[in-house]
Amino acid sequence: MTQHVPFLLEIGTEEIPARMASGGIALLRDRLVSELETLQISAIGVRTAVTPRRLVITIDQMGIQQPDRTEEFVGPSVASSFKDGLPTKAAEGFARGKGVDVSDLYTIETPKGPYIAARKHIPGSPTLVVLQAVLPRVITSIIWPKSMRWGRHKETFVRPIHWLVALLGADIIPFTYIGVTSGRVTYGHRFLSAGGKSLEHASQYYSTMAQNYVMVSPEERRSAIESGVFRLAEEAGGSVIADPGLTDEVQHLVEWPVPTLGTFPETFAQLPREVLISSMRSHQRYFAVQRKNSDVLSNHFVFISNMVTDDMSVVARGNERVLAARLSDARFFYQEDTRRPLETYLSSLDDRIFLAGLGTVREKTERLRVIARGLARLCAPEAAEIADRGALLSKADLGTRVVGEFPDLQGIMGRHYAQLGGESPDVATAIEEHYRPRFAGDTPPQTVPGALVAIADRLDTLVGRFGIGLIPTGNQDPYALRRGTLGLIHTLTTHKWHMSLGAMVALAVDAYGTLLQRTRSEVLLEIDSFVRGRIRNLMANDHPVDVIEAVLATPDDIVTHLMSKVESLDALRQMSDFEPLAITFKRVMNITKDHPTAPCIINPTVFEDAAEHTLFDQVTEVNKVVVDLLANLRFTETLTILTTLKAPVDRFFDSVMVMSPDHRVRNNRISLLVAIRDMFTKIADFSRIST
User: Fold this and answer.
1) What is the pLDDT of residues 194-248, one digit of tens each?
2) Residue 333 and residue 349: Cα distance in Å, rounded?
3) Are strands 43-51 and 69-77 parallel, antiparallel or unpaired?
4) Distance between CA atoms of 558 and 546, rounded to whole angstroms?
5) Please, how many CA atoms are within 13 Å of residue 300, restricted to the half-sphere of its CB?
6) Cα distances (Å, whole numbers) of residue 576 to 171, 568, 573, 579
7) What would the DSSP string read from start to end of 485-546?
8) Which of 288, 427, 567, 669 could covalently link to 423 via disulfide, CB atoms 3.0 to 4.6 Å apart?
9) Quick check: 98 and 120 in contact, CB under 8 A?
10) pLDDT at 1
């Protein structure tokens, strides 16, 4: 039985950007595990860790020897390998290349016909030897969002590499990567640990790191941060404002987290809550504290130091001075901003380019007004005036000093300044809400005017980019159009607005006038496809792909309808008798696929069989009910009533030949089936359902 020993790979670097750390170590793990599986090297207990200065993979038990294996190699075809029963040069060359005798070759059947093959026994290699080639290949395979070169090296990595540790048990796995040779010497905390630490065995790694002020595990650092922040906030008589995103970021900025409490002068409490939090979070990565059982901010904050000193109050005072300076700047900016009404900042938007070829931000706000009013006509006429005013002022705060310093507060400061300037609460709320949802999981706009301006903003951006050919491709989406479209979808579904996508897009196309470089039909068609793609991705986790495709293949372009139809069809698909039902109606779809419209008006006097009369009567009655159900958006009930057509359709197929030699009879029967198809395609294209 193969012996197993611990494995360690540590890549020591300069500070890795926090946003890249988790993705990088996940890729490194996936690539290594995949290589080991391919090479049949046993690996039990794979663990990963990442800190600002290191990427780490450890394996509790790794086999020290590859197992012997037998591989099958397929050679040339039998026809080219043997002539008159004798091996050709092709067969002899294949056997020689695989190290076997011609007599050991045998025949296998392939999709292309009979081919010769050979089996070769391959003895396993020592894992130590195999990994010398595998580890550089694995490290190279990591794809970073951004990487860099250093020195005279052509290879790239996320940050310069300073050391490599690669151990299999007590043995060094020797290799060189970007000028650095692997060894057994690691390094602890940059400031709290002096010099290199030699590891005699891979199993010593975690204990050695802990002794040298490095919490290697991100989960351990996160726990230390969360518990420390909570404890210090409690001691200060408050509670920490939960911020999982900040915790994620900070735990990738430190190797030895030391939560520390600080304070700032209460005179800064006059600033809006969001300005205080942004000053602490965005610039300093501090955790804000609010008073116990209150939304009022405390003048305390918690920061995470990467140092331990005899007197942490010295470190706290340094951070307090930095924050006080930040807040002083924020107070000055806020005071200057509030000297003027928000509307006066519109003029500053004349100098801000929205996007080359698409005019200024000021021109964008005028388009938003037009689009928002058009949307209001379609779904909420009573909100038109407020939406118009909200659209006009939606981007005005981009010209203020606070937003210039804290870009994450755009919209939020617009609301504050609008309220201070005497705007109605509804207008102020619309200004803030039109940026929602700002991120995955964020709440869409809750007010009608806010939702109208939000949709208008996303439509303007989407149409503008598509209109000048800036369409996302592959994983490239520099303008976040996919995220913006998901926000549009969530807003429509939240408010249950049943607006045609084509009509909405047309409003934005018209608002652009002659600025767009592409034709109206091109933009409408491509955005329709793009939005359907987002619906597909959004629903794929909860519904079968074929159900989604069947619904999206219909002409309906109302987003809320499409999503409801997917849910209704999926529920029907769960029924035990769904498959024979789908088969029947797929047959209808297939027969009528070459007839986009009925060949003729259905004429009952042409019917030759009672099954035709029965089906016609049933279709006529069902169609009346379907029209009423669809008008009331009762899609589940529509599908239920449509299923009653299965029996008469089956009898129809059993009793008559659709493709009758008599063209009048044939066209009449096809027209009857087209009527059935057209009712079904108001919900889904059943030909796309897997059966």
Assistant:
1) 999 999 999 999 999 999 999 999 999 999 999 999 999 999 999 999 899 999 9
2) 18
3) unpaired
4) 19
5) 22
6) 60, 15, 8, 7
7) HHHHHHHHHHHT---BHHHHHHHHHHHHTT--SS-HHHHHHHHHHHHHHHHHHHHTTTS-HH
8) 427
9) yes
10) 58
CB 465 within 8 A of CB 517: no
Tokens for 207? 């204990």
The burial of 529, by beta-carbon neighbours within 10 Å (0-12 exposed, 13-18 middle, 19 or more buried), is given as exposed
For residue 347, with 0-12 CB atoms within 10 Å meaning exposed, 13-18 middle and 19 or more buried, which class applies? Answer: exposed
Tokens encoding 608 = 């030759």
Q: Is 108 left (phi over 0), alpha (psi -120 to 50) or beta?
A: beta
Residues of the chain with pLDDT under 50: none
pTM, full prediction: 0.82
Give the DSSP H or E segment for 70: strand 69-77
561-688: CATH class: mainly alpha
Q: 439-498, pLDDT tens digit by residue?
A: 888 999 999 999 999 999 999 999 999 999 999 887 778 889 999 999 999 999 999 999
Residue 339, pLDDT score = 95
Closest CA to 297 of 305, 308, 310, 286: 286
8 A C-beta contact, residue 435 and residue 454:
yes
- The single-letter code of the amino acid at 151 is G
Residue with tokens 């509670």: 239
